[in-house]
Amino acid sequence: MSFDRNLKIAPSILAADFANFGAEIEAVEAQGADWIHVDVMDGHFVPNLTFGPPLVKAIRKHIKTVMDVHLMIAPVDPYIDAFADAGADILTAHVEAGPHIHRTLQAIRGAGMKPGVALNPGTPAGAIAEVLDLVDLVCVMTVNPGFGGQKYIDMTAKVRELRSMIGDRPVHIEIDGGMDPKTAPAMWEAGADVLVAGSAVFKGGSVADPAPYGANIKAIRTACDTLV
Ligand code: DX5
Ligand code: ZN
Q: For residue 18, how far is its CA from the centre of ligand 1 (angstroms)?
């Protein structure tokens, strides 16, 4: 997994058929997904529950691209080894999830994964200034985490600020929440390179009829491309 700032679309399987993750992932990758975004929720850090390491491990073999695991859990540290064993490429923890984000990010790297740090909409860019040398990815939430299909909250100023703080470091900026062909271009223009999209990618398609997944991904890509 080499670093670049090309536009990457990362479909969130939160919007896929939960009874058919393996086939959904294979379908969306065949339709042009760059990464697969996996949302882990604990019913405590966020008001929703999804799944844990055993499910993440089970879907690993269906992912040919990059398994991008977004932890919306607190605490994080007791579960780091389990997600490493599950095969996560990127493991993202929220800066709000505990008092020791620095230790958490070091532990993620130590377990052999690429560390990411996520910021809720209410958290300023400056909250992660001291850990930028420890991460491969900064995830800017453009919804309050917990659910798919929510309305986009504009974070353009924060993304610009982070892009400038990151400078030449090989650190991705990922945007998560409410990304669609209308909302994505401003984020790409502000300096993001990974766009997570759940409902906007999976709408209208299925494993039996996956072409809409490809059209939906392409619509986001085209909207960003036409901007430049
Ligand atoms: C929100 C999750 C997102 C979500 C995005 O808590 O972290 O990844 O699935 O879904 P959409 O694209 O539908 O907003
Ligand atoms: Zn997410």
A: 15
Number of H helices, E strands in the chain: 8, 8
Helices 21-30, 53-60: axis angle to 10 degrees equals: 50
Q: How far is the CA of 218 from the centre of ligand 1 (A)?
A: 19
**Stretch (H or E) spanning 194:** strand 194-197
Domains in the chain and their CATH numbers? 8-225 (3.20.20.70)
> 94-110: per-residue pLDDT in tens?
999 999 999 999 999 99
What's the predicted TM-score (pTM) here? 0.98
* Average pLDDT of the residues in 60-88: 98
Q: Which sequence positions are flagged as catalytic? A: 39, 176
Q: Find the DSSP H helices in 73-228.
A: 80-86, 101-110, 156-166, 184-190, 199-202, 211-225
H/E stretch holding 26: helix 21-30
- Read off the pLDDT of each residue in 123-130 and give the average, rounded to a whole number: 98
